[in-house]
From TrEMBL:
The keyword Transmembrane helix applies. The keyword Iron-sulfur does not apply. The lineage of its organism: Bacteria, Pseudomonadati, Bacteroidota, Bacteroidia, Marinilabiliales. It comes from Carboxylicivirga linearis. It comes from the Bacteria. PROSITE patterns: NA_NEUROTRAN_SYMP_1 (PS00610), NA_NEUROTRAN_SYMP_3 (PS50267). CDD domains: SLC6sbd_Tyt1-Like. This is Transporter. Keywords: Membrane, Symport, Transmembrane, Transmembrane helix, Transport.
Length: 438
């Protein structure tokens, strides 16, 4: 596919909506609150924000830069930009593989959000006791029929959006879904803030207790900052290839990172005041959303409306992320294997769905996909992307691409130092922690 015929985003809002939609997913609304809860609240949040600024934005910028400069899918980008360094083509393969594997198990969890939205609409969740909610979640997540049906439905939704292309598919729908997501989470946050006893939740989230900052908390915060931005899985590079030269990449990276962080913090605002208002343990872990919150909604005025809104919010967040993951694979199939986009989308959707079925029927396969991507492929990809831009592409080419919009490039020296030295070491620590060496 030639550069001239490539699809692209139409403008800045489309770029930010799509890229932020990629970053904003279940990781922000499902994972972020319970990770904050398990790691001491405000102190973790502060460390997390520092890592977003210091590490997350420069590495995201490097992925956007790689994609736009090459105007190709993530594998084709490294093949084009580093013909004399074939080792970096492995980064492209890792990105495609990571996106494929992540969506295979992510679609399973996303299917759970559809089930809970269905239950919320039918007003079935509010009739369950706390113990019944826990039992139901365990039995449903371990069953086969329900998760299979909802996972397939979710993948069909994802494929239907991606098959439309960048302008008419991804951009069109993320421009709608992201504002809807933002409005819902703000409304939920306002409601949560008005509950009696909500102040304790705000104190937990925003008043740092630095005595709780340990080496593990720092590594968890760094890992969450890195993974929540969709770095290292080929998504940002792929979306970068659809960004026109007139757009300011640094502003885009900052805007996407801030949008992602804002949604994560708003998720905390929506959840922790309600959790403390009803005497729930904030360290409830992964079951916080599916087991604990329905019990909170039951005791809230207007609980039915807010339970429906919350689980619909989860569906939107999951969908905007899954669309970006599928696009990584579709772009590779289309540009490297020469498939028509429609066929590339069908083949990618069916293939990933089949692997998703394996994840439903085997918790070992589910955990293998999760562990391999989160602890090996993504951090290694992030390290190599930083090294590539910092040492191989270099300051002059990076500056040339960053200034393509015709404006000045700020802080290029600082960015290059981070990419050359700080980011590889920091992400390396996440990698070592993830595989159990630290």
């Amino acid at each position: 596919m030639s550069i001239d015929t490539r699809d692209s985003f139409t403008g800045k809002f489309g770029v930010i909506a799509a890229a932020a939609g990629s970053a904003v997913g279940l990781g922000n609304i499902w994972r972020f609150p319970y990770v904050v809860g398990e790691n001491g609240g405000g102190a973790f949040l502060l460390v997390y924000l520092l890592f977003i600024l210091a590490i997350g934005i420069p590495v995201m910028l490097s992925e956007l830069l790689i994609g736009r400069r090459a105007q190709k899918n993530v594998f084709g980008a490294f093949k084009s930009l580093a013909p004399n360094y074939p080792v970096f083509m492995v980064v492209g393969i890792m990105g495609v593989g990571a996106a494929f594997m992540i969506l295979a198990f992510y679609s399973v969890v996303a299917g759970w959000t559809l089930e809970y939205t269905y239950l919320a609409v039918g007003n079935n969740l509010l009739d369950m006791s706390s113990s019944e909610l826990s039992t139901f979640f365990k039995e449903f997540s371990e069953s086969k029929t329900g998760p299979v049906i909802w996972m397939v439905v979710f993948m069909l939704l994802t494929g239907a959006i991606v098959i439309g292309g960048v302008k008419k598919g991804i951009e069109r729908y993320t421009k709608i879904l992201m504002p809807v997501l933002f409005v819902i989470i703000v409304v939920l946050g306002i409601k949560s803030a008005t509950l009696e006893g909500a102040g304790e939740g705000f104190a937990f989230l925003f008043k740092p207790d630095f005595s709780k900052v340990t080496g593990n908390v720092i590594l968890e915060a760094l890992g969450q900052a890195f993974f929540s931005l969709s770095i290292g899985m080929g998504v940002i590079a792929t979306y970068g290839s659809y960004i026109q030269k007139k757009e300011n990449l640094l502003e885009t990276a900052v805007s996407v990172s801030m949008a992602d962080t804002l949604i994560a913090v708003l998720a905390g605002v929506a959840i922790f005041p309600a959790v403390f208002a009803f005497g729930i343990d904030p360290t409830a872990g992964p079951g916080l959303v599916f087991e604990t919150l329905p019990n909170v909604f039951k005791h809230m005025a207007g609980g039915y409306i807010f339970s429906v809104a919350f689980f619909f919010l989860l569906v939107i967040a999951a969908l905007t992320s899954s669309v970006s993951l599928l696009e990584v694979v579709v772009a590779y199939f289309s540009e490297e294997l020469g498939m028509k986009r429609s066929w590339a989308t069908i083949v990618a959707t069916v293939s990933i769905t089949l692997f998703g079925l394996m994840a439903v029927f085997s918790s070992s396969i589910f955990n293998f996909f999760d562990y391999t991507t989160a602890n090996i492929l993504l951090p290694l990809g992030g390290i190599l992307i930083s090294i590539f831009v910092g040492w191989i592409l270099g300051k002059l080419k990076a500056k040339e691409e960053l200034s393509a919009h015709g404006g000045k490039v700020r802080m290029i020296g600082v960015i290059m130092i981070i990419l050359k030295f700080i980011a590889p070491i920091a992400i390396g620590l996440v990698f070592l922690n993830g595989i159990g060496i630290l």
